[in-house]
Amino acid sequence: MPVKHLPPVIKHLLTLRNPLLPPPPPVSKLGQILTTTYKDAQRKNAEKGWLTLTTCTLLTANLPSSVGHLYKFATRTDPENRASRESLADATLKAATIREAALKSNIFVGVPRTILSLAGLSEVLEDDVKASLRTVSKRSATPQNIEEILGRGKNLWSSIYTPFDVKLHDKLGSYHPDFIEFIIQAYGAVLSPLPGGDSEQGNLSRALGSVVGVACLRAEGGVGPQLTSHVFGLLKARDVEGMSEEDYWLASDEGTEWVVRTVDAILDVVKSEEPQQQGQAQAKL
Q: For residue range 190-203, what is the model confidence (pLDDT) as tens digits?
């Protein structure tokens, strides 16, 4: 017999334990911190790093509407005026960067928040931008490319965790034999840059992939060992060849410190709502 409705008792039960989204920050407060941190990023020539870390911070804080506002802030001189949007090419590139950062965030903070934030982004995208974004997956595993995907995953694992990569690999494998294999596959298919560099729409470099990890884990809280590992991963990205000047700066001591401090600055604003207000926002899929 098909199940079409929740039993009343279960339906009521699901309303308990705070199932709704936390309240988003007022647009005025969000706009102020976005403006302050973006201007700082401009001075450091780190605009793509800023867009990446801000996406991941807002996603991890579970604020889908704020992710949508981030897109409007990044692509319009007036976030509430569609007519003030920059060129279609620039808007599409920023939309692609936001959704790529959100996709990679899934590895660190899970599927539910990624779904909600991608929905929050999709709600505010203009039709011409939606039509310009890639619609065909480039991460489908096939017999022809699976070894390449696994190779990218192993290389990224080694790049982040050397000289402890083998030890950590074996330790996680001892917890569950499939766990480490899942991680390597995810690193290869999702966290590592797509082959093709900047020719791939919204592609994030090795350094920006580590910015994703640092921003998500810093915003998540309570995961100090994992955060430390990915901070090391960002610092080690300075040894990767062929990255941009911005990437190398982000992987410097100064750049990595800036990433952490900027995440903190955004969090201090977007998570400052009173606890009793939480649970008032509705989630949309």
A: 999 999 999 999 99
